[in-house]
Amino acid sequence: MAVQKLPLAKALNESLRKALETDPKVVIMGLDVGKLGGVFRITDGLQKDFGEDRVVDTPLAESGIVGTAIGLALRGYRPVVEIQFDGFVFPAYDQIVTQLAKMRARSLGTVKMPVVIRIPYGGGIGAVEHHSESPESLFAHVAGLKVVTPANSSDAYWMLQQAIQSDDPVIFFEPKRRYWDKGEVDTEAIPGELHKARVAREGTDLTLVAYGPMVKTCLEVAAAAAEEGKSIEVVDLRSISPLDFDTIQASVEKTRRLVVVHEAPVFFGSGAEIAARITERCFYHLEAPVLRVGGYHAPYPPARLEEEYLPGLDRVLDAVDRSLAY
Amino acid sequence: MTVESTAARKTTRRSSGTKRTASASTSTTKKATAATASEPELVQLLTPEGERVQHPEYDIDLSAEELRGLYRDMVLTRRFDAEATALQRQGELGLWASLLGQEAAQIGSGRALRDDDYVFPTYREHGVAWCRGVDPTNLLGMFRGVNNGGWDPSTNNFHLYTIVLGSQTLHATGYAMGIAKDGADSAVLAYFGDGASSQGDVNESFVFSSVYNAPVVFFCQNNQWAISEPTEKQTRVPLYQRARGFGFPGIRVDGNDVLACLAVTRSALERARRGEGPTLIEAFTYRMAAHTTSDDPTRYRRDAEREEWEAKDPILRLKAYLENEGHADAAFFEELEAESEALGKSVREVVRAMPVPDHMAMFDNVYADGHALVDEERAQYAAYQASFEGGEAE
């Protein structure tokens, strides 16, 4: 049967396996992706089945990993790079922003850069510093990159397939605290478009926009609000660049209120872009200013404080109440 | 020479400091001198005077025609370069990075390549581009400001110029890893300079290429200056010696000797093809011109140093050899001069006629598979432009 109930991590693993099976040019690269199967076991068993040439343990140097992936792409390969944790991507930031993102335009369209960079991101797992960050805006700001993040097992499986098939560089953010959440995956389904948002729960009073780890939080918010008689619509963005403003607009024209939720700091976060564009598109529909809930303008705090920093049920509900009170 | 003069300058500068600083600087200078003294000779096959000398490990046997070919390459490259500098002065180019003085390093290494090999240049490899058959005027688009790269790298297996230092050495290494995966026997030649040798990416490329035994040759043109900073600001050991710590051979070659550069690069590429891994070649040369047309070397280096290197000119020494050996006659040099003039003229004409791209072009090729925001902004900008033309606005 093609429908299985899989943890999000296992769905990613199955997706990588499928990619390795179907395209001989797919190469997985990263730290500890071989025998160990990655620190989160996303590549578990792949080196054993596909060999060290396809699933490559690299030296411990992120810029080197992405830089050589660019070279492999120029040679016709389709590298899927694993960055071990969000906070470790910055040594590779130069290669990603300066080289990977711009190569196609610089070559006047003669070069393609089918490189996927997988990054487990976000907090909520009690980790030490540099293991809980949400740097998606730093990539979405860069022309030439695409940025996506699944929120459930089915999207994890299919969006990774689509990212690998894309001829553009895709930064693939994986909500690490949701790795162990199970969901149905139909490996024979016809997937939706990679860069289209999804209405995860319908509602009429207010729209919550979220992505990655915050989708589950917002669904819980919507369930709690329903008990108080408030009908909340939840939009799972799925793709941050490009961003599906049409789906948000359609929702806001119906609910007239919008709250954007992400773990990343609010300041210059994706919520700011969404607020600006939706205000432009829905100025006469809005009953309240677009509100944002997210991290603070402070370094990601020590694990014992992260529940205070991360948007949780209460903070999102507070924003919902403030919006509805307008 | 350079090392002595910079060491001397350093001592002079520091002698005005406190006693403690002065004594510390003395020991620094001594150490630097000791390192310099232990440097092995560089590989040389043609002396500055144009005398052919033998080297026990590297030799090369070229016909008179091949020797004339190398000479022609260097002369035409220098002419192209001079033309580009002039075009910048005339306002036709925004900037130019001259290769003056580095012709032997570039032509020697460039002519060691096979067609199926792949080159990753910096932004100064005009001579290597020439060897690869890249239309020289293609190199000028970026400097004229009509594109940011502007050619298909796969046409001549010559990658786009890379401005951020050292990044391309990793691309070269990755490409070489791909060659190895394909089971092909091509090799990759990666260029960088003494300044870029300090970059993390260059050092990471040494690690990756060594660990994967990738068929890549690193060709470092040590032209003594990273804009205003002398090589001693980048390293305490001769650059080629760094290779040993990464587990592959390094060799210093006279970068103004086209024969030695050819012989050493050819040997390193063959080694890579045999699956024996990377090599670091340090071509010891000199940047005769400014870093770019925006630079002013009189602020940081002596005229005398340049004069010392003028005596080692790569073109003059090969000319002396060709003449002394009777490998080229007056007619050859006259014809080359005419060819050189014609090249200059055609470069001028092509550059001046180079079209400014259509203003919508900035939205092109941002993505291979398209992007909704780029489409939206393209349409907005087109509508804005059309609003000036009356009636065409959406």
From TrEMBL, chain A:
One of its GO terms (molecular function) is pyruvate dehydrogenase (acetyl-transferring) activity. SUPFAM superfamilies: Thiamin diphosphate-binding fold (THDP-binding) (SSF52518), TK C-terminal domain-like (SSF52922). This is Pyruvate dehydrogenase E1 component beta subunit. Signal peptide: none annotated. SMART domains: Transket_pyr. Keywords: Oxidoreductase, Pyruvate, Thiamine pyrophosphate. It comes from the Bacteria. Coiled coil: none annotated. It comes from Streptomyces nymphaeiformis. InterPro entries: THDP-binding, Transketo_C/PFOR_II, Transketolase-like_Pyr-bd, Transketolase_C. Its EC number is 1.2.4.1.
UniProtKB/TrEMBL annotation, chain B:
Its EC number is 1.2.4.1. The keyword Oxidoreductase applies. It is an enzyme of class 1 (oxidoreductase). Residues 1-50 are annotated as: Disordered. GO terms for biological process: branched-chain amino acid catabolic process. Its cofactor is thiamine diphosphate. It comes from the Bacteria. One of its GO terms (molecular function) is magnesium ion binding. Residues 18-38 have a biased composition (Low complexity). CDD domains: TPP_E1_PDC_ADC_BCADC. Residues 72-342 form the Dehydrogenase E1 component domain. Keywords: Oxidoreductase, Pyruvate, Thiamine pyrophosphate. NCBIfam families: PDH_E1_alph_x (TIGR03181). This is Pyruvate dehydrogenase E1 component alpha subunit. It comes from Streptomyces nymphaeiformis.
